[in-house]
Amino acid sequence: MEKIKMTTPLVEMDGDEMTRILWQMIKDELLLPFVDLKTEYYDLGLVYRNETNDQVTFDAAEATKKYGVAVKCATITPNAARMPEYNLKEMWKSPNGTIRAILDGTVFRAPIIVKGVDPYVKTWKKPITIARHAYGDVYKGTEMKVPAAGKAEIVYTNEAGEETRELIHDFKGKGIVQGMHNLDDSIESFARSCFNYALDTKQDLWFATKDTISKKYDHTFKDIFAEIFENEYKEKFDAAGIEYFYTLIDDAVARVIRSEGGYIWACKNYDGDVMSDMVATAFGSLSMMTSVLVSPQGYYEYEAAHGTVQRHYYKHLKGEKTSTNPIATIFAWTGALKKRGELDNLPELSAFADKLEKACITTIENGDMTGDLALISSLEEKRTLTSEEFIAAIRKTLEGML
Ligand code: NAP
Ligand code: MG
Which ligand is nearest to the CA of 271? Predict the structure, then answer.
């Protein structure tokens, strides 16, 4: 069989620990035999980040702007324990944070659904994608403990030195106070990323805040979304047969639980933090969750939502067999290949990526899976495979389909 051709390279960002091992296995067994894979390779493994003073992370993000589509392996975000382990010059920042700051995007997370791993919520039939705004609010807040009676105010001073004041509270005794902010620019980027991703995936978009209580802060989010939708997206949504739906956050939570899924739920920063863990857990497994960063300019970076699976890596280093789930990492590759296929008009490439996804799902539904899934799967006949055996099983299913 002739290998499928690519025209534009993917930006390939390699990573760390067990996911780095899986990365190579996925390429060797599931991609290189079938696709004439073109990538521009960046090694974001901690060893090379340290050698280049993290320059490689910046270069990889810039390359994503050049080519438009990247696929990323999970990477270590260094903490104190990693300093001696990797003999680090500095406690380098989270690569995801660096890339996000350069591409200015929104992260969309969606579960991969398979028979046997059933959501805890009975009505959920289709994935729910969470889009979390990644700037500001309580994450960039300023806080103070109020020690005793006194007045707390918000003071804004314009460039001419004129002040505007709002009373927060006239304290009669001890208390606490918090100030936070957001930027119209950032909210606009967030809104456009969400509208673009909804069009891209042909799913409805839901957005919710607490605008009835927060009449200026949250209301601004609501207004910016509404205005951008009316002016730039309404006709496109109509043509695609999808909807934009705004409601209050508490109403949204109730509707999400009663829904059958199949939409994107855009959340403010804090809501997204909390709700993405709730939705991920309710769908069954973190190892079955994909993640894509979409920039307002339309750059895409695909990855798995989980980390480098450190515990499994240490077993691997001792020569023990692991049963680490590669599905979310495979879906990062298929997401990126499909996007490349779409942008470069290579339907064969997109079709291959679709088949590889189906092969993954069919393999699991036939009872062959990794340990994490075997623990929660309700299938009667299931076999726990090692990482290598599982990837080999997917390859066999895929070859049967091609
Ligand atoms: P983790 O890698 O997500 O793993 C936590 C635990 O979840 C594992 O020990 C394993 O449980 C289970 N698990 C996660 N993914 C799995 C998979 N694919 N197959 C089977 N089991 C899986 O989180 P962590 O151990 O807290 O973090 C390790 C490193 O990852 C850290 O250095 C962190 O900085 C980094 N990290 C990177 C990213 C990213 O690059 N996007 C995201 C998160 C964390 P059992 O051990 O019980 O089997
Ligand atoms: Mg969280």
Answer: 2
Q: What is the pLDDT of residues 86-105, one digit of tens each?
A: 999 999 999 998 998 888 87
Just give the CATH number of 1-101+297-402. 3.40.718.10
What are the residue boundaries of the structural domains of the chain, listed by start?
1-101+297-402, 119-141+180-283, 142-179
Which of 47, 98, 309, 321 to mutate to test ligand 1, by most ligand atoms within 8 A of the CB atom?
Answer: 309
Contacts of 223 (CB under 8 A, 6+ apart): none
Alpha-helical regions (H) of 202-293: 217-228, 234-240, 249-258, 269-283
Q: Which atom of ligand 1 is nearest to the CA of 306?
A: 3
Q: Can you say whether the dihedral through the CA atoms of 34, 40, 44, 49 is positive or negative?
A: positive
Cα 94 to middle of ligand 1, angstroms: 15
331 by Cβ neighbours in 10 Å (0-12 / 13-18 / 19+) ranks as buried
From ligand 2's centre to the CA of 81, what distance in Å? Answer: 21
Tally Cβ neighbours within 10 Å of residue 144: 11
- Specify which residues 143 forms β-bridges with: 178
Q: Which CATH class is domain 119-141+180-283?
A: alpha beta
Question: What is the reported pTM?
Answer: 0.90
Contact status, residue 57 vs residue 290, Cβ threshold 8 Å: no
